[in-house]
Amino acid sequence: MVVLRQARSSGSFAPGWPFGSRWWRYRVALRIVLGLPTHTPKVHAPFAPEQVALLRRWQAVPSVAHMRCPRHGDVQRGSSELVPCANGWRCHFRTPDYPDLACSYAVDWVYAGMLEEDSIRALEEMSVEVVEVSFDDGSNEPLNVFSDYDLLLSFQDAADLDWEEVAERSALDERRGLVITQSTVLEDLLGDVILQLERLSDPERRQREIGQWMIGKRLSRVETLLSSGGYLEASSNFPREALYGAVRRRNELAHGSIIRVIGDAYPRTDGPGKTRRVEWQLVDRRTRESRLITMAGLREDLYAAIAAYTDLLLWTRNHLV
What we know:
Blueprint: E1 2-9, H1 20-23, E2 25-32, E3 42-44, H2 49-60, E4 83-85, E5 88-90, E6 106-107, E7 109-111, H3 117-126, H4 148-156, H5 163-184, H6 186-198, H7 203-210, H8 215-227, H9 232-236, H10 240-254, E8 256-262, E9 266-267, E10 274-275, E11 278-284, E12 290-293, H11 295-319
């Protein structure tokens, strides 16, 4: 399996991308993970000490697939790797709640290709270890978002918090953050559109200037350039509705606060008892206007932000290449 990861950088870009080689450049990092040598026959235990040593070396190579326990391999990847021994593979996975209870999964065979020392040495020499720096939080404690009222109550030690409300707020804010982040990626693409339309002799200096602009200013600059002449067809097909919708929603979510609203109880229409409506409202900090916010609505907002970016990419390919 080959995983291709692309990272954006400043300067020119490789040919074939929307704006050609003058403005864009992609740094492509390949993380190649070779599968198990299933094309070689299976060799069954027992294994000699030197063979066990080779299997340990195989499990240590970062660029090959490792033998893992199928019972929890997708959940606990780091601790689910099988350990080789003379009798085959054993799973040593333990949970923090039951440290003395190990997994009983075992395998008594290996692929012959995993016992070839020359192959393993070549894999060791060509492999590049990937060190994850940003994902350094080893805590399993959940993170929550608290309202100002929650924090005030906690500070005054006046009453216990409504943890159901805290959980709901955290879930909504997590999804709200996804929409805001997804919409923000439009900024870079709009900046590159500006560079392509302006066609200046020093694009890198101009790019540094545009880098200080907010997304609204970038979008306004594109509109000004399109209306300056020579871009009649491009202007008529510009995905304004999708872009302005994504930007508008991003601003609403970024500059609003959410509150939980509990309505009055009213008689049920389908039987005895009453119904109470509980909803979350997004309140604009400037106008104090509020509107309903839902998880399904935020999902649609995320899809709309992705669609806006895709529409802009398609527009650039059709009109600016």
